Amino acid sequence: MHYRLILIFLIPFISYAQHKNCSNTFIEKKYNDAIRTYLDDDYEVEFTDYFKIPNNQKVELKKSFDSDFEYIVILVSPQDAASASIEILDQTREQQEFEKETLNLDSDFVYSEFEPDYDGIYNIICTVSYKRAGDYCSVLTVLKREVAPEPKKQK
Questions:
Q1: 104: which DSSP letter?
Q2: pLDDT tens per residue across span 123-154
Q3: Using CA atoms, how far apart are residues 136 and 103, in angstroms rounded to an integer?
Q4: Which sign does the torsion angle of CA 131, 132, 133, 139 carry?
Q5: Does the first or last residue of the chain, that is N or C, have fewer Cβ atoms within 10 Å of its Cβ?
Q6: Is the pLDDT of residue 86 over 60?
Q7: Phi/psi at 69 (5° precision)
């Protein structure tokens, strides 16, 4: 039990150490701000990826999703981002979700709520448009929680 608590405490530090070349304090602060609300709503971090996204180019990640869970997909972008989008495609490349946000100082992330219709591999496509040329670090995280059971109908 104590090992589990230690591991949960160390996850942010391990993540930062692994991705030091693609991270900064702004990204870390915005990442923590973005997930804090959802963690209070019984969501758990399923996975987190740090990567660089060239200006207006797509980065595609394949991830497994389970239909027994609700997901929040969050893309945190750097300070110089003007807009960001998340697109989720199923195995047949059919669009399941799409969210795009114009970013400002108050909102440096875009999120999408996703409940898959079936278990399987889905493609998450991230795109960021920057105010200045370059490729900057971004963070994609997926949070999950069990789907709440439907209330029973009263007679």
A1: B
A2: 999 988 888 876 688 889 999 999 876 665 55
A3: 15
A4: negative
A5: C
A6: yes
A7: -130, 155
